[in-house]
Amino acid sequence: MASMTKIEKFQAKIDIEMDHIKASLIELRAKAKEAKLDARTELEKGLDALESSQGEIKSKLNEWVKSGKGAAADLKKSIKRSTKDLRKSVKKAYKNLT
Question: How many domains does the chain have?
Answer without folding.
Answer: 1
